[in-house]
Amino acid sequence: MNAYFQIISKQGKAFVRVYPANNGGEAIRREELVEYLQLKNIMYDPKDMMAAFTATEIIDIPTAYSYEYADSEFVKVTVSPDNMVCTVRVIPPFAGGKEMDKRGFLSELTSRGIVNGIDEAVIDSFLKERQYCTDLVVAKGTAPIQGSDAVIEYFFNTNPKIKPTLKEDGTVDFFNLNTIIHVKKGDLLAKLTPAVPGKPGKNIKGENIRPRDVRPAILKYGRNITMTDDKTELYSDVNGHVSFVEGKVFVSNVLEVENVDNSVGNIVYDGSVRVNGNVCENFKVIAKGSIEVRGVVEGAYLEATENIVVVRGMKGMHKGVLKAGKNIVCNFIENSSVTAEGNIDTESIMHSTVVSGGDVRVNGKKGFITGGRVCASNLISVKNLGSNMGADTTVEVGVDASVKMKAQELQKEITEINKSLAQITPVLDSVKQKLASGVKLMQNQIQQVQLLAVQSKELTARREVCIAEIEKCQEILDSETQGQVIVTGDVSPGTKIVIGDASMMVKTAMKYCRFVKQDGDVKMAAIY
């Protein structure tokens, strides 16, 4: 219990009786005692009053005040600056003075405008067992419940930066920069947690306290995106790439870049790709859709599940590749490898390997095929064929060129298998002879022989598969064909023309003709 004081009377004189603290309570507060005595106009000797602050037992300190009547209990009310807490300290009445009841206590509070958050239990406790000169928190305001701002979580990198890839050998790969953020159909792109408004509070004087304003947010998005009915989630409608521009989410299945170079890196994309400029040397563009290049492709690799269009042409540099699941349209093809399951249209082909599952049409002002090998399933149409400079030029039609190439690759594989078996078989035969003569092998020798036996079995099985595949390819190659080569300009000597399993070497210059297969041979015929 805190120490406290009370004004008492002795023979008509007022004394300050001091009750010392116990059980660790607080000593008399100097300012509180001085303020109270001044309030009551009680004169005293400061030297005598010093004993009040160190008393360890009940003492009476004389004053110059004549005890005329007994004042009631005194309540000192303190309100916090924010009007949220009211604390009272009660000083005892003069000896014989009146104590407050609950109604009087509440009246003291309301007279000071305290009307909210009054803790009557604290008041009741005090009235039951009065503890003077002690802080009593008798009223507390209700603090506002602060709301929360809306939060948007993005499930992709909204700020991708160009960063070369570090290879395992410690070198830096400047081609794979990971600047494209791929998404699949149905991927969650963004999630909004809506703002939660706060709830107002009220101070002890009954005044409302507004919570802080919360910041709302909305999901902003473009095409190819679905928002849920509650407007809290965004999902991709397509396979493609996602980008974040000025707070808005975009998804496109057409990736558009200016150039494919060190600023972009290799592109591997689930949709279509549009390059407004050039594809530079040694870079790759692989797309599940189509590829369109408005400029030039220089010594690069392009592969599309659908079409490839190169507006200004392909400078292959003996390493460039175009590979399309459908058609290819390219202004010119030079020193390149070009493959399409559909048609190939171009103005010129120079020293390249070109394979089409449909037609190859080389038209336009130039319209020539010079050097290399051009294959088509149905038709090769060209203005000028061959070279006066002696470059070997071969054109093939009549079967799916890919079948012929597959047969050639299978034959190469069989040759390699036979080489491997030629090395393994003598070893296995020698081991069989040793075992038959009673020679015992060491454990490591047995393991080595077992590995060779397994390898021999696998190679033999693979060779049988290759032989069967070659037979199927040959059946297709042996079938009759209606393929033809049409030349609307000149055919140079030295040009080789192959239709199905028949071939012809052009020995003299020819003009405006077509080549077909008749009676097992390639023959020239008129264009009609």
Description:
- 20% of the residues lie in helices and 37% in strands.
- The chain has 528 residues and is of the alpha/beta class.
- The N and C termini lie far apart (123 Å).
- The protein is built from 6 helices and 40 strands.
- Strands 19, 21, 23, 24, 26, 28, 30, 32, 34, 35, 37 and 38 form a 12-stranded mixed sheet that branches. Strands 18-20-22-25-27-29-31-33-36-39-40 form an 11-stranded mixed sheet, with no helix packed on it. It has a 4-stranded antiparallel sheet with strand order 7-11-15-14, with no helix packed on it.
Summarize the structure.
With 528 residues, this protein is of the alpha/beta class. Helices cover 20% and strands 37% of the residues. Helix 5 packs antiparallel against helix 6 (443-478).
